[in-house]
Amino acid sequence: MYKGSTDCYTESKTDQLCERDLRRSAVLRFLLSTKASQKLLSSCQLETHAVDLEVSFPKPCSSQGGGKPRSSKQMKEQLSSQMTYQGLMLSVVFIMLCRTEADTVTQKNVVKVGGNGTLSCFLKESHDVLQVTWQKKNTGVNENLATYSVSKGVNIVEKYRGRLNFTRLSLNDTTITLWRVRIQDDGCYACIFNTFPTGAIVQDSCLTVYEQLRGSLHYVVSEGNLTATCSANAWPRPVISWIVPKAESEKTEEVVTHPNGTVSVISKLYVNSSTSLAGQLLICRVRHMEEDRDYSVKVKEGRWFSVPWLLTSVTLLIVFVGLVLTVVCCRRRRKKQSALIGTPEN
Q1: What is the pLDDT of residues 228-248, one digit of tens each?
Q2: Do residues 222 and 304 touch, judged by C-beta distance below 8 A?
Q3: Left if phi > 0, otherwise alpha if psi is -120 to 50, otherwise beta: which for 273?
Q4: Residues sharing a CB contact under 8 Å with residue 232, sequence separation 6 or more, in sequence order
Q5: 205 forms bridges with which residues in the sheet?
Q6: pTM score, whole prediction
Q7: What is the pLDDT at residue 287?
Q8: What is the mean pLDDT of residues 208-232?
Q9: What is the pLDDT of residue 247?
Q10: Gap between the Cα atoms of 114 and 97, Å rounded
Q11: CA atoms of 126 and 334, how far apart (whole Å)
Q12: ∠ at Cα 144 (143, 148), nearest 5°?
């Protein structure tokens, strides 16, 4: 609630102040009374009330120089409302902030590599739009893609011709479509409505491009040590984690970016005491696009032979077989010799 001054003014000073305050109050009343302002305030989910201005009037007094006392009617006409400059500016800023909040919308779209991506922008409030401009938001300077206006029509940047076009031609409701999207198209785009007299109103529309996840898991055992390898290829970059029974292990990871933009992550798990994993389940968990996929393999039993132990076993087996054959051969010779000695001559 704003009150007029109750001080006693001279006529000249009062006239100057009243003229200034009446102008400010008239602007404020106009801002708060227009339908556009009421809609903006409503869109901000705020309750509006009529502005209650209470004015107190000074008692009639004489101006310097013997002027006639001023009547309350004259004072009421000139001091009908008083609003400070700061209050007026806060009111204007408040309404502009509400307008910005009401018009700013961020959309998100998800599309697979090779598919078609659609980006849309829409103004909730009515504006006098002169031109719509689409830009790809990059670090530093944004990249221009396309513009549309009634006077100049559609203009597509050479780089995107044949792969991008407007699929909805409206200055307040615009849509563009990217065909055969690539990983490089991933990111956010700025939709700029150039309006009069408000100026530029910017909205964001984000496109998430993904490549389907491909993964694999296998293991090998060497000299009693187990090495498991989990590979995942996709976009955005997949994240690999391991779920293994309690065992002493180490992990390494390698990341490879391919020319088409996809990323391969290769994670290796090294287990020293491999016998502790016999019959257990190894799980490689890959997180991609906020979803988890498990790749698992069961470690087989009875295959835990180190190379030296295996060579020793084979050597002992060969020696044993050789000894057996030697014994058998010796017995056969003795039998033959005994048979020849015991045969009578004619």
Answers
A1: 999 999 999 999 999 988 778
A2: no
A3: beta
A4: 213, 214, 215, 238, 240, 264, 265, 286, 288
A5: 107, 189
A6: 0.56
A7: 97
A8: 94
A9: 74
A10: 40
A11: 117
A12: 160
Beta carbons within 10 angstroms of residue 219's beta carbon: 18
H helical segments located in 104-153: none
The number of residues in the chain equals: 346
Who wins on pLDDT, 304 or 218? 218
Would you say 17 and 9 are in contact if contact means Cβ atoms under 8 Å apart?
yes
Q: Which of 290, 240, 294 is nearest to 265 (CA)?
A: 240
Q: What is the pLDDT of residues 99-116, one digit of tens each?
A: 443 344 567 799 999 999
> Which domains, from first to last, does the chain contain?
2-102 (no CATH), 104-210 (2.60.40.10), 212-298 (2.60.40.10)
What would the mean pLDDT of 45-55 be, rounded to a whole number? 35
pLDDT in tens, 299-336: 886 544 455 556 777 888 898 888 888 888 888 777 77
The side-by-side arrangement of strands in the sheet containing 164-168 is: 117-122, 173-178, 164-168
DSSP letter at 148? E
Q: Which two tokens stand for residue 233?
A: 């290829």
Q: Cα separations (Å) of 48 from 26, 54, 91, 233, 345?
A: 18, 18, 13, 56, 141
User: Which of 13, 311, 268, 263 shows the shortest CA–CA distance to 113?
Assistant: 263
Cross-strand partners of 287: 239, 292
Closest by CA to 198, choosing from 107, 109, 268, 96, is 96
Range in 77-86, 278-287, 299-308 with the lowest mean pLDDT: 77-86
Q: In the numeric block, which tokens belong to residue 238? A: 């997949």
Report the b/e string of 73-98 with b at 16+ CB within 10 A.
ebbeebbebbbeeeebeebeebbeeb
In whole angstroms, what is the distance from residue 56 CA to residue 54 CA?
Answer: 7
The pLDDT confidence band at residue 7, using thresholds 50, 70 and 90, is very low
